[in-house]
From TrEMBL:
Name of the protein in its database record: NADPH dehydrogenase
Domain (NADH:flavin oxidoreductase/NADH oxidase N-terminal): residue spans on this chain: 48-272
Organism: Stieleria marina
Enzyme class: oxidoreductase
Record carries keyword Flavoprotein: yes
Amino acid sequence: MAYPRIASLKTYADFVARLDELGITLPCDADVMSGNDSVLSQSNVVDGMNIGNRFCILPMEGWDGTREGKPTDLTRRRWHNFGISGAKLIWGGEAVAVRQDGRANPNQVMINDQNLNAIESLRTELFDKHAERFGKTDDLVVGLQLTHSGRFARPNDKSKAEPRPAQRNEALDKKLGIKDDSAMLTDDELSTLIDDFVAAAVLADKAGFTFVDIKHCHGYLGHELLSGVDRPGKFGGSFENRTRFLRDIVAGIRATAPNMKFAVRVSIFDFFPFKPGDDKVGVPDPLSDPRLEFGGDGSGMGIDLTEPSKFMALLKELGIALVCTTAGSPYYNPHIQRPAYFPPSDGYQPPEDPLVGVARQIHATAELKRQHPDLFFVGSGYTYLQDWLPGVAQAVASQGMVDSVGLGRMVLSYPDMPADILSGDIMSRKKICRTFSDCTTAPRNGIISGCYPLDPFYKAMPERAALNEIKKASV
Ligand SMILES: Cc1cc2nc3c(=O)[nH]c(=O)nc-3n(C[C@H](O)[C@H](O)[C@H](O)COP(=O)(O)O)c2cc1C
Ligand code: SF4
């Protein structure tokens, strides 16, 4: 591997020198403050929601619901950990399907009348755990991420893709066995699906969630519609048509659940789908079409924020103030979405130092924040910073590059890292996520997700041995 591991950058000077070497300008504070002095402990009122600090837990599913879509003890454990994390914004917990054909796997949690009480208890237990540890919850905001997985749906069998794409895409169609237009969601089907999102939001309201995230990221349906330049009809082609899905969902929810608040998680740029090259290092798939990348510059490898910025303006028009930025897709270009040193078993060796991927997301988010200062931006992709995450988090928050620092993988291995940072406790280095990608490799191979290398609970599970075998075979 050509890139130095983060753990080998022992001092602040080492880290800054590495950034210089890569030509990356990424702010990082040498001293991280704690308590009320810390910018990360500042609260914000956003659209009437009182968010007590600048850490957010990003949505992360565990492939561990029941076949009916109810949470299990494993799901509950993850939500408990979100509650004790110390973050005051919980972005949706995890992707929750609005109906059966939109589930990304047969164990994805699904919201409907039968599952309502169980999903409500996820929220109440998270609040209880937070209250036990931190004494108050009046500044804790918890939403639910609503999704339809579109072309990445696998609702009935983990090993059987049942894609419902929004448009054709040669590189991605090939991987999913899509040969014609028969699985494409029609306009009428999308209209029905809009009603399903509205019904799901009404249930989320009943379950006490403060906001719903209308998911537009990672190649799932909402995101694919944004790039649907080839799709005919009222949901494709023009920017207006490509955002109709979101606009109609929002209008429907406003009419039926007037107290519900909104948020949108969106991939603000996308690159070509990648695949392993001869030496296993990722290369762009030659079948890729650069016109199909929302926020792409037409080269398939660069960013143009013109449309994403227009999307932010639309959110404002719709009265949505909460935005979570992410990038690309874990299925086809994970190095831009969740920078990692070790790829998942179905991935490729990183084609760039993962720090480049971290900086790319941070700078794209900062640019949108500069253009839309009145939106509240949550950023993603910080986990790869590892030991340097707190210093970068403080620097980007204090320089106004982002409003809240979103944490994904890091809270699987180190659930209460935000609490430790905010209280000034020494960070526990042995809990720092080193981006081994087991939490992605496991579900790609039909195993529940979790931090097998570092979380003692998952370390002790029988699934770990099977996962290790799979990893050995994929080397
Ligand atoms: C196991 C796992 C499950 C995930 N599930 C979701 C999800 O349900 N919804 C979503 O929007 N993102 C999901 N993500 C992406 C994360 O929210 C986040 O964007 C990504 O991990 C990058 O942030 P990080 O560098 O802090 O890990 C998932 C990531 C992982 C590792
Ligand atoms: S399995 Fe654990 S250490 Fe590996 S990437 Fe996931 S959270 Fe990080």
